[in-house]
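Hi again,

Forgot to attach this to my earlier email, sorry! This is the prediction with pterin-6-yl-methyl-monophosphate bound. I've pasted everything inline since the attachment limit keeps bouncing my files.
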Amino acid sequence: MSHQTSYIRATTRPSYPLSVTSQARDAQLTGEESGRRDHPVVMGILNVTPDSFSDGGRYTDVDSAIEHGMALHRAGADIVDIGGESTRPGAERVDAETEAARVVPVIAGLAAAGVPMSIDTTRAVVAAAALAAGATVINDVSGGLADRGMATVARDAGCPWILMHWRGHSRDMNKLAVYHDVVTEVRDELLERVDDAVGAGVDPGQIILDPGLGFAKNAEHNWQLTRHFGAFVDLGYPVLFAASRKTYLGRLLADPEGNPRPVGEREAATLATSILAVAAGAWGVRVHDVRGTADALAVWRASGAPHLKQSAT
Ligand code: PMM
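Structure tokens for the complex follow:
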């Protein structure tokens, strides 16, 4: 395991109640789900929804969803992230039965094909059904806030649990994008999520953090979080970076009339953010374009960047 301990930057950590060693975390994150400094996890996005902002409506039937999940895995996804409820700004909620009915058959099919998966849900009942069907990671964009039962499911399963920074459901979240110092506030609110999770019996080694780009954040907030991503890495937990095709990239690349770059044409910008994030110590990146990301990471590795980063810290 010693080769895995170095992917956390050896910087002074803020004083903070939990003592977490990278070995403890890595002992929990085994096999292909284990991010290493030189092999960040590539999480491929598969939304089985009619309305997600990028791939919504494309994989609503079970066979096409399974086929796409397998294609993402073949292209280099270490984990395929399956979602059955859109979290785009303004999205209306679906009920738990609908959400579970969308994801469970897809997860079962992909599990049979040996594809490692996370379940992207804020509901404990959906997470439990997804884990029973073969998912091995919980990706909770509410960081355990939306459903207090999620901590029990994560604790009992002992699986990795991604806690994302969140302030409220998608319908209302833009109103909640108010910060004095976004980096400090997001960091502190994430640590509250960690404390709650650990207080509920979750092992700190199960926890992965995510600053939640685009969730109750405006473009400037997202740039601040991107710029200071290392502040999250320094907390000592694995950190996921998830900027893929998001609106702040579309705004950056707006045409002269101010129209944002269309969602499907934000890939080069996404790749640039992914490389910046892994260079800052990200555990993994959550992306739509898995092949392009795997290629970019191969260049990053071949360039010696992980080695240079380690020796510089
Ligand atoms: N963003 C979306 C959905 N799930 N999960 C995590 N951990 N982090 C994110 O930023 C995130 C997420 C947004 O929707 P998409 O599935 O269409 O990309």
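The two ends are 19 Å apart (CA to CA). The first helix runs from residue 22 to 28.

That should be everything now.

G.
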